[in-house]
Amino acid sequence: MSRSDLGEWKEDQSVRVIEGDDRTHVIVKGQIYMSWEPGDEGARRLAIVQLYENGMGTQEQLAEAFGVHVNTVQKYLTGFALEGSGTLVSQRRGPRSGWKLKPHVRSKILAIVFLEGVEGVKAIQARLREGWHEDISLPSIRQVLGENGLLHEGCLHGRSEGDHGDLFDRDEGGQLDLDLDCDENSDGWFLSDAAWGCAEKEKPGMPIAAGISLRARSGYSSAQRVYIDRLEQGDYNAYAGGLLFAPLLEQNEFLPTLKRVIDIPTHEGYSLEELCLTLLYADVFGFRSMEDFKRAYPEEFGVLIGRAQSPSVFTLRRFLHKVRELDKSEALIDEFAVSYLKHGLAEWGVMYIDGHFLPYHGIYPIKKGWHGVRQVPMKGSYNFLAVDEGFRPWLFLIRSSSEDLLQKIPELIEKAKQLGRAAGLSREVVERLIVLFDREGYSAELYRYFEGKDEGA
Description:
Layout: E1 15-19, E2 24-28, E3 31-36, H1 41-53, H2 59-66, H3 70-83, H4 103-114, H5 121-132, H6 138-147, H7 193-202, H8 208-212, H9 222-230, H10 245-251, H11 254-261, E4 266-267, E5 270-271, H12 272-284, H13 298-301, H14 313-326, H15 329-342, E6 350-359, E7 368-371, E8 376-387, E9 393-400, H16 405-422, H17 427-431, E10 434-437, H18 444-451
Parallel strand pairs: 6-10
Antiparallel strand pairs: 1-2, 2-3, 4-5, 6-8, 7-8, 8-9
């Protein structure tokens, strides 16, 4: 474009925008100030911001020159001032999440894994093309498997190059290790190579999903088993991946431990087990509060507890108030601590102790304590926590902010030894306990306690 193509210059116009076939030009006082290819919206927005920042036009003048509303100009300026040029780049339109697959496609992927026993992301993609005439990308298939808890080492033997699991060292234990490898006498299923083989041993040549029904389903309720069967019919449930926890909870006696302390058989038509499982899965799926749990579909969440619908938020609130009236919170903590030691979820030998301030924003009067991070006094309580050598929490106390770590260290040690004996540890093993704590617990009084009262107790 030559300067003769820019048109006749008018002195009263300080900024002009010339739209060409190959370039868009911004003319300021007869000179080309900026230019870009047509369709580059980010460059157009940046030009508006730069012209205003350099005093070459008011918001109204720039809005007229670029053919936009003055409020749009104000939005560009505000975004640039707060977050920089990143806000001027056009964002990809569409849903915020990457999920674009329809429910029937997701159910086909799960049916191929469970009912046909197809292994490997690429093999699933090929099966979708051949049998279902669906062309689904590998990342989308991985997303379906991941959201249903199936993207796991040994779950799909035929992993393709670049699979997420190959980025990590498989020898190191993660935060969650289900440890459900099965042998001839176990009920584990489809979480490891051994589990796949175990299911196949039931009837040679039988699909893996059919092998699951023989023994591994014994840990599920009738309603949960019905849902597993309905996968073949294309059913989909956003929370069904939580069923993977059912064998784990049964193996570690989660519900029996609760029943030994909380004596509430039923509440508003739901059993103690169903109410406790609802609260557990609500935490597993990341619901931050009771109000947040209102977003869950009761008919979908109910599959996790073996009911047509999960309890309402109001039922759960009234249940928790009823539990609070029992005043057995610390007894329940102790019971779980013993269970952790018995089942190997926590190791005896080394105990790290620390205190954490928990702010309180409720309606009840409560004493103020000192928030160590914010460095301000606040209403709240202290959580005195004990973890093992693998940093797995297994014992804690929630106490008033008037108490401090110095007072709680001896109490936690005595309680830990009592729980160790209750778990069946010998007296010699119980006495071989190494306790570590930070400088908050350093005190001559505490060390005198260690040298005298605790010795031979």
